[in-house]
Automatic annotation (TrEMBL):
Keywords: FAD, Flavoprotein, Oxidoreductase
Listed name of the protein: FAD-binding oxidoreductase
One Pfam family here: FAD_binding_4
UniProt similarity note: Belongs to the FAD-binding oxidoreductase/transferase type 4 family.
Record GO biological process: respiratory electron transport chain
GO molecular function, one term: FAD binding
Length: 461
């Protein structure tokens, strides 16, 4: 431990596990963006709230910046430590702390993986309904810090709806116990909701109390091939009106190309331009009749060219792999990711506007579209040509992102639907939030972190 500050930290918190091997610094200092070179001071791995508090008190006294870290699966640079910050990883704080059946509340440490929360809920005959492909590696603390959404928002909403309470360690080491799992609590500002989507800039999330709900119903999965972008929302509205939708996801032929190349099975003999994966509750003969009726209606309208309906869990999983495997299949191609949202009612106009914009501005790039269309969230991934320097690629993508941000402002949308702002989207925050809103956000941040040591440079400077 060559840096005197690392030795000072170890002296101040003797029980704290601290790493500063170069391999550990590289591993814990970045996230999935891969655009910044990790350069943290050290990695702190607390095992208790008390160790988090002691670490923050030391950091505040020493003026050392701190980057809270969960599963580091973020896509906006929110967990990057590139300027000598102390990474505070919550991965050792990964326990289930308790369950109360009457309240249907599960209390967990912030470092627990989303998949482990799902398993804990199932042990009590219930479910935690927030779900997405990174479930095995992302952490609950990170989910809360970005208000993660995923594939079932159309049915259950975002993470925010399922957070009943949060324990937060502030920049000065104080512990705040926010809302304490109450259903009704009209006692002033609900600081719990300030913490959701705060990206580690207001404090370190150390514990969460999560709402659980009834176990998921029996479901069926449908994959539909569509002839054009224009009919996408027509299909969504038709299925939503006729079936109890659990999820409605969209992807293009280019997305299918990459997932099949990555090992997924092609669903049809022919290749189509656009696809939808829909999951819906299925109950007996009546559900089967409704399902077939909805499918036939969409075919009769000319909105669907082909389709398949799952029979059994294995086939349902294979159909979902076509959607959930996209991000992993694109990773080797160094994608530049856009994660945007508009109101569902605004989606047709925004889709037309954006499709024309990107076709004009990105003719030389492979652009892969997919997303949670049922909740107005669209992911646009631009793949770097193998012969193009990464710096030149980023410059070109950022030029077009400015145009995309302007389109979002015109349609009342957001530059970040569920990935957070971090470092990547910081230049475009003004397209989503007014100057007055940003000024209020800055004031809140100063109130909770007067020295500016918590995740500096993220969200705004």
């Amino acid at each position: 431990m060559s840096d005197a500050r690392v030795a000072s930290l170890q002296s101040a918190v003797p029980t704290l596990r601290v790493l500063n091997d170069p391999a550990d610094l590289a591993h814990y200092g970045g996230d999935w963006t891969r655009r910044w070179t990790p350069a943290p001071l050290a990695i702190a791995l607390p095992a208790s709230i008390e160790e988090v508090q002691a670490t923050m008190r030391w950091a505040y006294a020493q003026g050392v910046a701190v980057v809270p870290s969960g599963g580091r699966t973020g896509l906006s640079g929110g967990a990057v430590a590139a300027n000598g910050e102390l990474v505070l990883s919550l991965q050792r704080m990964n326990r289930v702390l308790g369950f109360t059946a009457a309240d249907r509340l599960l209390t967990v440490e912030a470092g627990i993986a989303l998949e482990a929360v799902h398993e804990a809920a199932r042990e009590h005959g219930l479910q935690y309904p927030v779900d997405f492909a990174a479930r095995g590696s992302c952490s609950i603390g990170g989910n809360i810090a970005t208000n993660a959404g995923g594939i079932r928002v159309v049915r259950y909403g975002n993470t925010r709806e399922w957070v009943a309470g949060v324990k937060l360690v502030t920049a000065t080491g104080e512990l705040l116990d926010l809302n304490r799992g109450l259903v009704k609590n009209s006692s002033g500002y609900d600081l719990r909701h300030l913490v959701v989507a705060s990206e580690g800039t207001l404090g370190v999330i150390v514990e969460a109390t999560l709402r659980l709900t009834d176990p998921p119903p029996d479901t069926r999965v449908m994959l539909l091939a569509l002839p054009s972008f224009d009919v996408l929302m027509e299909v969504f509205q038709a299925l939503r009106a006729r079936l109890p939708l659990e999820a409605f996801e969209f992807f293009t032929d280019r997305a299918l190309h990459h997932t099949v190349a990555h090992g997924a099975q092609a669903p049809f003999e022919s290749v189509y331009l656009y696809y939808v994966v829909a999951e819906f509750a299925s109950a007996g003969e009546a559900g089967e009749v409704a399902l077939l009726s909805a499918f036939e209606y969409c075919m009769e309208q000319g909105w669907v060219e082909d389709g398949v309906i799952s029979h059994g869990d294995a086939q349902a999983a294979a159909l979902w792999r076509l959607r959930e495997g996209i991000t992993e299949s694109l990773a080797p191609h160094v994608p530049y990711k856009n994660d945007v949202s508009v109101r569902v009612s605004e989606m047709p106009a925004f889709l037309a506007h954006t499709q024309a914009l990107l076709a004009a501005e990105y003719p030389q790039f492979d652009v892969v579209w997919f997303g949670h269309i049922g909740d107005g969230n669209l992911h646009i991934n631009v793949l770097k040509p193998s012969d193009m320097a990464n710096a030149d690629f980023v410059i070109e993508c950022e030029r077009v992102t400015k145009l995309l941000a302007a389109a979002l402002a015109e349609h009342g949308g957001s530059i970040s639907a569920e990935h957070g702002i971090g470092l990547v989207k910081k230049p475009y925050l003004g397209s989503t939030r007014s100057a007055e809103e940003i000024a209020v956000m800055r004031g809140i941040r100063r109130a909770l972190d007067p020295a500016g040591i918590l995740n500096p440079g993220k969200l705004f400077d």
